[in-house]
Specification:
Radius of gyration: 27 Å
Structural class: alpha/beta
Helix content: 40-55%
Number of helices: 23
Largest sheet: 8 strands, mixed
Shape: globular
Length: about 675
């Protein structure tokens, strides 16, 4: 980042004639920018014009300086004002919630201006009062109150208005390649069309710039793109992730089979910032017009590190096509992107039904219209998971064969069979029976048939790999036929179950829109940075070396850090407590966390001694073959606990997490929990 700032100010100096000696060797646009100021200095132009140019540049410099100072002041205020000169050695020594909140408001008075978010939470998401949800990423479509009011109304005679219909939906799998779906699959159901339009508007995307394809989940979207991209011509696949993602891993495996050369960015220890020199070298290596895919998240969903937009611009300038992974972004973070300026070739987002309750949903793969032509037809891609959004069965439409118990069993089984739940995810709580009866039951009917059909398609595609050319030739015609069949079936179900002009209200998106980017960012900035400081204030008692209870990875106190934390808990001996155990114990306290695995970490020479102490081998990995350094390095990293905050997170959620983590200051806490499980005749936690 400092490199780009330095480069920006060098250009600014050249424009004002501040670096004339170096400008003698510059060519093109930068010389042209310098010429007016030189002419003015020679008297060819009126002096006021020179003063105007200098005044404009001075204002920009002052704004940049003011912004920098305000951010530094925020960091200093946070560091100096939250529990100054204080450490906590037991959970009993923590301040009570009213005292902690009073201190919090004193440090961050701007948090009081975000009461609108608290009002929305209390009225529309009242289930969050008893559960802390720190394991959701993506965009919530509906509110808890909306879903439950719909369930209540559907149990009696529902009103005739289409807007009051339950906002449930199911997904129906299609047999179509990505290219054929974009070109010929425009016959949406009324429900899908309504949701699609609302999502496009929410993300500030224009229909004439991007096409949206619905996929079963995030992993499906990444793999579908890998199976459709021409890696035989554009062999590069460069990913920028500081953690292990099942979705990206699926993409890499598919891309390698199709001839891609995969590389990854590295992240400098201990800050875990992007190793800029290495990434710039990989972006600019071997100049050619088309290099391949540059997969870039603007924010790490594990550490909360934010990355500059300029990396996407640099990738485009060097011939890469950009895939923007927006799954970890906040609900209004894309408002700062300016899609019309950067215009990524592909954007991937994930959507779920209800925050803190129902994680089922779908993913959206957005394709820039000008990039559609380069996609390739693929027989394998036809069996991966393009879906249609269709109305789910209402309670009155379920037959006597579908009891609540059966539906719950189906839902529970399919929840763990789907591959959209990544290793870093741990969705909050079970899906209530009422919701299952309204939506998950129909999902199961489609899921079972979809699994069978998918298996048949995969088998057929594997048998037909030898005749790939013939399959590709028949791809367009067969896809059109199958798409028409799918849509005809969906049309019948839609006609029988809902009005053709049915519209749906996405209150989850509406709430984010009503709050806006500035309010959400300010709220999360205060909570996240307070939590960072509060966790660092926990220290083991009577520890000779002064062991901290918590170690945080990635950015610490920072004005523009993302609302996610990666941390580990250590005992009084300095030994790490397994993240999975922390997650399980948190769940018993009604706090939902997730786990992740940090990798691609680069150690400078001065930190080389820490490397063996910090890195660990992934427990689930297979022993690598000797001499294969790439595989060996990929299996080395750091397993961590992750807490992801949303715009519905409040200070009390952060306080409850803090008090839970503080329980580990008691050296016997884990052992007490073990015996508690035995006493309650529950399954013991394996340690």
């Amino acid at each position: 980042m400092l490199f780009f700032i330095h480069k920006y100010f060098r250009r600014l100096m050249k424009a004002t004639g501040g670096d004339k000696e170096s400008n003698k060797h510059e060519q093109g646009g930068e010389n042209k920018i310098e010429e007016p100021s030189e002419a003015c200095a020679s008297g060819c132009c009126p002096i006021p014009l020179l003063n105007l140019v200098e005044s404009g540049n001075t204002k920009r410099q002052r704004r940049a300086t003011t912004t920098r100072i305000s951010r530094l002041n925020f960091v200093k205020l946070t560091t100096d004002s939250i529990f100054p000169n204080t450490h906590f050695a037991s959970d009993e020594s923590l301040p009570a919630f009213p005292d902690a909140f009073s201190s919090f408001i004193t440090v961050y008075p701007q948090y009081g201006e975000t009461q609108q978010a608290d009002h929305i939470r209390n009225s529309e998401y009242y289930h969050l009062s008893s559960h802390v949800c720190l394991d959701y990423t993506g965009f919530s479509l509906f509110s808890h109150a909306q879903m439950h009011s719909s369930v209540a109304s559907s149990s009696s005679n529902p009103p005739p208005s289409t807007l009051s219909q339950p906002p449930f939906f199911s997904i129906s799998y299609k047999s179509a390649s990505l290219k054929s779906q974009v070109q010929y699959g425009n016959q949406d159901t009324a429900l899908e069309s309504s949701i699609r339009k609302r999502i496009m508007h929410f993300l500030n995307m224009l229909d004439d710039e991007y096409s949206m394809v619905c996929t079963a989940n995030r992993s499906t979207a990444f793999r579908l793109l890998a199976e459709s991209y021409p890696f035989h011509a554009n062999k590069g696949l460069l990913c920028v992730y500081d953690y292990e993602s099942e979705a990206v891993t699926a993409m890499i495996e598919s891309a390698k089979k199709r001839g891609a050369k995969v590389t990854s960015a590295s992240f400098s220890w201990p800050s875990l910032r992007i190793h800029s020199g290495s990434l710039m070298e990989k972006l600019s290596k071997r100049k050619k017009k088309k290099r391949g895919l540059f997969v870039f998240p603007l924010q790490s969903r594990i550490t909360g590190a934010k990355y500059p937009y300029l990396w996407m611009t640099m990738a485009k300038e060097n011939g890469w096509q950009v895939v923007l992974d927006a799954c970890a972004l906040g609900p209004k973070d894309l408002d700062t992107l300016g899609l019309s300026l950067i215009q990524p070739d592909f954007i991937i987002c994930s959507f779920f039904k209800v925050f803190g309750e129902n994680p089922s949903g779908f993913a959206g793969l957005f394709i820039k219209k000008s990039s559609i032509a380069m996609l390739e037809p693929s027989t394998i891609a036809r069996s991966i998971g393009i879906v249609s959004i269709i109305p789910a069965r209402r309670l009155s439409q379920l037959t006597d064969d579908y009891s609540g118990t059966d539906l719950d069993a189906h839902s529970s089984r399919n929840q763990f069979e789907e591959d959209d739940i990544e290793t870093i995810s741990s969705f909050s709580g079970p899906i209530p029976t009422q919701i299952c009866n309204g939506s998950a039951g129909a999902d199961d009917v489609f899921s079972e048939s979809a699994v069978t059909e998918t298996q048949k398609r995969v088998k057929k595609s594997n048998q037909g790999e030898s005749s790939k050319a013939q399959d590709e030739k028949e791809e367009t015609s067969s896809s059109i036929i199958e798409l028409e069949l799918d849509h005809s079936m969906q049309a019948e179900e839609t006609m029988s179950g809902a009005d053709k002009s049915m519209e749906i209200v996405c209150r989850g998106l509406d709430h984010a829109d009503s709050l806006g980017l500035l309010l959400i960012s300010s709220r999360l900035r205060c909570i996240t940075n307070w939590l960072v400081v509060a966790l660092k204030k926990l220290r083991h008692p009577h520890s000779e070396s002064g062991h901290s209870l918590v170690k945080i990875y990635g950015p610490r106190i920072k004005f523009d850090r993302g609302p996610a934390l990666a941390f580990n808990v250590f005992d009084w001996k300095g030994e790490k407590i397994e993240p999975a155990l922390v997650q399980k114990l948190a769940d018993r306290s009604n706090i939902s966390l997730s786990c992740g695995f940090l990798n691609n970490i680069w150690f400078a020479d001065k930190y080389e001694a820490e490397k063996d102490k910090v890195l660990e081998r992934r427990s689930s990995c297979v022993i690598t073959i000797a001499g294969n350094k790439n595989k060996e390095n990929a299996n080395m990293g750091i397993s961590v606990v992750n807490a992801s905050l949303s715009f519905l997170t409040n200070f009390q959620d952060a306080y409850r997490l803090w008090t839970f983590v503080a329980k580990f200051l008691d050296a016997d806490f884990v052992e007490k929990e073990r015996w508690r499980y035995i006493t309650l005749n529950q399954k013991m936690i394996e340690i």
